[in-house]
UniProtKB/TrEMBL annotation:
Subcellular location: Nucleus
A Pfam match: Dimer_Tnp_hAT
SUPFAM superfamilies: beta-beta-alpha zinc fingers, Ribonuclease H-like
GO BP terms: post-embryonic development
Organism of derivation: Davidia involucrata
Name recorded for this polypeptide: Putative zinc finger BED domain-containing protein RICESLEEPER 1-like
Domain BED-type, residue spans: 14-69
GO MF annotations, alphabetized: DNA binding; protein dimerization activity; protein serine/threonine kinase activity; zinc ion binding
Statement: the UniProt record of this protein carries the keyword Ribonucleoprotein: no
Enzyme nomenclature, EC number: 2.7.11.1
Subunit comment: Homodimer.
Length: 675
């Protein structure tokens, strides 16, 4: 029934009953009505009628809409009780005992929509869910566990939900351990069911308390041909640990996860420090089963680390000159007058560079490279500035400027290579070979420089690089060959530039033989897997109709001959076919996913090779001169809790990105700091 000629009553007095959140008072003639906002039913609304009949109607009306009526009608009482309960919140030790905590009043905005009020009333509070959500938040964002005992957090939580029970530090720690245990079981089952192999990244961290940490990250390509990486262990170590202790810790972690038999390669961040450790691990794993290629591909060293190490060697050699340039840039930028004078001088010598002078951040070596590169463009202006300004005494000699130009050019190459490495947080192994070869060629040219300072520095850097190259060149080359855009052609292109035209053919043959030997081992593994079901089927004494199967021998013959043909043709077929057109949008994992039926054995090998972590430096730390430092909020916790928080944080971040692709990994605060 429509209500006509009605006039809403202007509120002159606040209606105290919560029921009036669901009725509108209107006047028709001299009679007041209460109109239900949900069903538009008209009831008596005079002040003498009370609200009992309105409550009874509201119960019937809201039940039809499945709303929690009891919570709606009790909202006022709960607001009063929760306001009073805030005075019982305990104080932090640092807070004055007589300090009064001012509670926030629990009053809904009078302008709030009535529909929103109903939805709030229908929510049922779950203490257990809230506890686990809080624990996940702390793990995900690296918050200190002690935040649950901060008075500000307690007030916030109580105001947000009066029914929330304030937790202790130890209680939230137990919740974090519970989450870690459940997530670890998921990761374990996933790794156990993985058909391919796993490669392990081994990284060392430090802490403000000078404690060492071993961080192990499993890298693999999953069944959907997506590259995955998960931190599986985070173990505290004494700084006085020996190679024996380190190798035993790694082996124990492998055994705990049951991945010792699935290991393809291990990547360490340094070229020489871990040689004894790697030897012991290889020796221990070889006792159970031989390593692929007799372990030639097992020991991989971090590509980004060698690039950064060589760049830092260059900066160290140029340290005194770099200080001069840094002081010169500071001097020019010290005042507007000095900057103006410098700009005039730059115009006089015909410098129209679009790049302005740049002052570096010494902890970021790419910024030092940019400072040197920019300063070298103003070489003439700096030289002339000393003649016009007697206070400027930091001018470089002509020879020093030659050093700056040469080293800045080399460091720029290192920056470009590092940018390629860090462009993707999970790069596949195929992208590293051409970048490392370019670096190798540049070092060879530098060693031939006529300037003794440059050539002697380059020889030291190349000696360090050669250690890396001797360990990793075969693994890098095989990964590049498994890129259908390159195949053997990239090796044939670079090796003459590196080894010369006479030695290159033998080196190319070594790579060709290496990938064939690896492929043959995968073929043998594939054959052994195929023979299991075949043998089981051959044990059947008769065919389905009870007669003896006289062609079982033929089945075996067909299986063996077909298998040998596929082994011969699989790799050769791939190498003989034309290379795939090179473009920037190429996704190598998608390519192998599509071509798995065509190259069944080679695709198994490609899955394992491309999943090797050739670089283990986090993209956001690629240019930092320091290492990883464990967050001080967590470094004081027990070793078990530290491992649970670090591993759990990594797993929860991955889960968050999978369920919410719009959330960026880099948008989350890092658990790590840098020196």
């Amino acid at each position: 029934m429509e209500i006509s000629n009605e006039t809403p009553i202007k509120k002159t007095k606040r209606l105290t009953s919560v029921v009036w959140n669901h009725f509108e008072r209107v006047r028709k003639a001299d009679i007041c009505y209460a109109v239900c906002v949900h069903c538009k039913k008209k009831l008596s609304g005079s002040s003498n009628s009370g609200t009992t009949h309105l409550r009874n109607h509201l119960i019937r009306c809201l039940k039809r809409s499945n709303h929690d009526v009891s919570q709606i009608l009790a909202a006022k009482r709960k607001r009063k009780e929760s306001t009073l309960s805030l005075t019982t919140v305990s104080h932090d030790e640092g807070q004055r005992k007589d300090e009064i905590i001012t509670p926030v009043s629990f009053k809904f905005d009078q302008e709030q929509k009535k529909e929103e009020t109903i939805n709030l009333g229908s929510i049922k509070f779950d203490q257990e869910r809230s506890r686990l959500d809080l624990a996940r938040m702390i793990m995900l964002h690296g918050y200190p566990l002690a935040m649950v005992e901060h008075v500000g957090f307690k007030i916030f939580a109580k105001n947000l939900q009066p029914l929330y029970e304030v937790m202790t530090n130890s209680a939230i720690e137990l919740d974090c351990m519970t989450i870690y245990g459940k997530e670890k079981q998921k990761v374990y089952e996933m790794i156990h069911n993985l058909h391919g192999r796993i490669s392990l990244a081994v990284d060392m961290w430090t802490s403000p308390e000078n404690t060492g940490y071993l961080c192990l990250t499993a890298n693999y390509i999953d069944e959907d041909w997506k590259l995955q990486k998960k931190i599986v262990n985070f173990v505290s170590l004494d700084y006085s640990h020996t190679d024996d202790i380190l190798s035993e810790v790694v082996i124990k972690c492998l055994m705990d996860w049951d991945i010792d038999c699935k290991l393809f390669a291990m990547t360490f961040d340094d070229c020489s420090t871990y040689d004894d450790t790697v030897f012991r691990i290889k020796e221990r794993l070889s006792q159970d089963r031989p390593l692929l290629k007799n372990g030639q591909l097992f020991d991989v060293r971090c590509a980004a680390h060698i690039v950064k190490s060589i760049a830092q060697d260059a900066m160290e050699a140029l340290r005194d000159v770099t200080h001069k340039i840094r002081d010169s840039v500071k001097y020019v930028k010290s005042s507007q007058a000095t900057q103006g004078k410098f700009n005039e001088i730059a115009q006089q010598v015909g410098l129209n560079s679009q790049k302005r002078l740049f002052l570096d951040c010494p902890m970021r070596w790419n910024s030092t490279c940019l400072m040197l590169e920019t300063a070298a463009k103003y070489r003439g202006a700096f030289s002339l500035l000393q003649e016009h300004d007697s206070d400027y005494t930091m001018a470089l000699t002509e020879r020093e400027w030659e050093w700056v130009s040469s080293i800045a050019g080399y460091m720029k190459l290192c920056v470009e290579i590092t940018n390629v490495f860090s462009a993707n947080k999970c790069p596949t192994a195929n992208i590293f070979f051409p970048e490392i070869c370019d670096l190798h060629i540049q070092l060879i040219d530098w060693c031939k420089c006529e300037d003794d300072f440059i050539s002697s520095m380059a020889l030291k850097m190349k000696a360090k690089f050669d250690k890396y190259w001797s360990k990793c060149n075969l693994a890098l080359a095989i990964a590049a060959i498994l890129d259908p855009r390159f195949k053997m052609k990239l090796v044939e292109y670079y090796y003459p530039k590196i080894y010369g035209s006479e030695a290159a053919p033998d080196r190319i043959k070594d790579v060709s033989d290496g990938i064939k030997e690896l492929f043959n081992e995968y073929s043998m593994c594939s054959n052994s897997l195929d023979e299991g079901p075949a043998r089981a089927g051959s044990s059947l004494p008769s065919t389905s109709n009870g007669t003896r199967d006289r062609l079982k021998g033929f089945d075996k013959f067909l299986h063996e001959t077909s298998r040998s043909q596929s082994v011969i043709s699989d790799l050769d077929k791939y190498l003989e076919e034309p290379v795939f057109p090179r473009n920037y949008d190429f996704n190598i994992l998608n390519w192998w996913k599509v071509h798995t039926p065509r190259y069944p054995i080679l695709s198994m090998m490609a899955r394992d090779v491309l999943g090797v972590p050739v670089s283990i430096v986090a993209p956001e730390l690629a240019f930092n001169t320091g290492g990883r430092v464990f967050d001080h909020h967590w470094s004081s916790l027990s070793p078990d809790t530290q491992q649970a928080l670090v591993c759990g944080q990594d797993w929860l971040r991955i889960e968050l990105e999978e369920t919410n692709p719009s959330s960026s990994h880099s948008a989350l605060p890092l658990l790590i700091e840098t020196n």
